[in-house]
Amino acid sequence: MRVLVCVKRVPAPGARINVTDDGQSVDTANLGFAMSPHEECGVELAVQLVEKHGGSSRVLSLGTTEAEEQCRYAASIGVDAATLISVDADDWDPQRTAAALTGAIREIESADGPFDLLVFGNESADTGGFQVGIRVARALGRPVVNGAKGVEVSDDESAVEVRRETDAGAELYRLALPAVVGVKEGITWPRYPTMRGRLASKKLEVAVVGSDETPGGQSKVRLARPEEKVSATEVLGNGPDAAARVVDLMREMGLVR
User: Crossing angle for the helix pair 195-203 and 68-76, nearest 10 degrees?
Assistant: First the structure.
């Protein structure tokens, strides 16, 4: 089967994000970048599906030339090919991004044949828009399920079963292929690149294409950092002297009477 994963270059998870004085962009000084975590799990899913069912995998990314790093990282863990839609800025709106990805997918499929499965992250780690995968699926006329925590291909490879967790339990969907899924972090455990994989990724020829899509109807007003939540630790005491204070605290919490 043929699997395509759309990935995005984002600030490294856990990094302190600062905003420029004009509120229009992220201050990238001393900031590391990585693949969005949901999509990293999507890449691992694609590699596992190809290992089990045969076929090929490809990653597709939109961004500046620096996003080639994430394409090569995907190759280092087993993805076969990569395409980068090279643009002069990363902060494209979801409509414009989806249109560009849709156009690139159609071009690749017209040359190499259709993909059985398109994989997106449930949402990107930086903007959290939850839109791009669904917009691409609608534009291509393919069924889509977001929030996937399990994906299994049927024995005849004509459909895919997608499991989505909810507060009430779990939902199970069966989609005829070709289809689109948005996966959540934890659906797989991403493997570490091997030395052989890293060497192979350096030789990978990343296909670079352009896009002339115009901005969509959404626009950025400004970026703002939320207030940091600071937690404090209170030392109740040391040794036996702390026992009385612990009991008082348990009473305050309603744990004892």
Answer: 140
